[in-house]
Amino acid sequence: MKVLTVFLFGMSLGAQVNLTPPAPLLSADAVLPAAPSAAMEHSLRPLEPNRTIPPGRTFYRWSAAILAASGVADVASSWRRPEANPVMAGSGSTFGGQSVAIKLGLAGTSFLLEQVVLRHRPDLYRRIAWLNLGIAGAQGAIVAHNVSLP
Question: Domain range for residue 93?
Answer without folding.
Answer: 57-145
